[in-house]
Amino acid sequence: MSTDSFAAIDLGSNSFHMIVVRTGNGQVQVLDRLREMVQLAAGLNADNVISEEAQSRALDCLARFGQRIGHLPAGRVRIVGTNTLRQARNGASFIARAEALLRHPVEIISGIEEARLIYLGVAHTTAGSGRRLVIDIGGGSTELIVGEAFEPQRLESLHMGCVSMSKRHFRGERIREADLRRAELAVGMEVEPVEGAFRSLAWGEAIGASGSIKAIRDVVVAEGWCEEGISREALRRLRAELLDQSPETLAARFDLERERAEVFAGGFVVLHGVFEGLGIEALRVSDGALREGLIYDLMGRVRHEDVRDRSVTALAHRFGCDEAHGARVAATAERLRAQVAAAWELEDADVAYWLDWSARLHEVGLSIAHSQYHKHGHYMLLNADLPGFSRSEQALLAALVRGHRRKVPQDVFATLPSASASPELALRLCVLLRLAVVLHRSRSNPPLPALTLAVDGRELRLGFAPGWLDDHPLTRVDLETEADYLAAARFRLTLANGD
């Protein structure tokens, strides 16, 4: 398979999707698409545990996906999990089994990050201009986005989807008027808090992106209620046709797949409620969605147009970080990394990014308080909406900021998600960041002297020009104190003053 190939897999609550593309001459050519309705959310019980039966369906699908992407190198594949895997208490064990089949890491993304990626997929695959509203109905969540060109301006993720609404309100039985009204009220309660904000953005066109919306479009067009897309009137006519129907009769009446028929009513009631709440008269349907967004985001990373870098810059600016100081710390951390990259297996380009981002954000917690600011920064980075970052990536960034001063929090590194980095690699990055921070404690502009860093396992030797440490006694004391902190984490730091 060409090294210009990329693949993305969306582990959705209702369906798993895979897309494989090839790039060249500025064009993206789709090589393969696969979709299977595994209905993972249908196997999620009241305790948020995915049943073994649902896991088995999902893993059988991923075995087939894994065969298709088996020859693609790391960095050319992104696999993300959404709402059901965000909720599942046994999600970590399922992900471990999935990664064994796929041979690539699985990331869990937030609802807001899911919304951003959906918008990116729609924007790159749907012609049009001006401000647009994008709607995506998944199995367990619904994303609403308003954006212009390739930039989203407002993103929301609502806790309702075709599977969750169907399980809660229809349960595979014939649909009664009371069922529909109860479900419509539940959707209205979810949409109401965001109605005003979305209506005020004055978008000119509504676009839908998801299997549920495509299925509804196919039905209303086939019935002659719309020539294309979906209108509000067509949804009202469809509502009347749903009464007294069961999944079996819906499948026969509208020529639906059995799995789609089981969640059709839930998807319909969500879309109908969004139409009513946001005042939508008509919607057109896009072929692009989350997996296409993943592809374009991944291509941006390869081309050094990484949205994560913009997110770090925006966060540093928003919380008043001393950006000049952060840049000095980042430059010194990179000098140190370059010297130990081979010995400490830090040669991957992504490793340099993590060191740079954590250096630029290491003081973000100062916006809350100086006391324990590294802990404030840790909390902020774990819980912020950071476009481009998965949950595991945010956990790694937060851990580095948490560990940049005082006691090394070994428990934080030991419990990092497997998709982020190994605990040992993360600790090595943390040590380099800590040294860079100590060396810039004076916050002054004069450059540091030539530095040499050599490592052998957890043994570090930091060398300076002759007499430099004698002329900078405060730095010597800071480094000796740092050696004590590192010793508690089983690293040994020695200083060489030009000998």
From TrEMBL:
Residues 307-482 form the Ppx/GppA phosphatase C-terminal domain. The keyword Ribosomal protein does not apply. Keywords: Hydrolase. Pfam families: Ppx-GppA, Ppx-GppA_III. CDD domains: ASKHA_NBD_EcPPX-GppA-like (cd24053). SUPFAM superfamilies: Actin-like ATPase domain, HD-domain/PDEase-like. Residues 19-300 form the Ppx/GppA phosphatase N-terminal domain. Transmembrane segments: none annotated. This is Exopolyphosphatase/guanosine-5'-triphosphate, 3'-diphosphate pyrophosphatase.
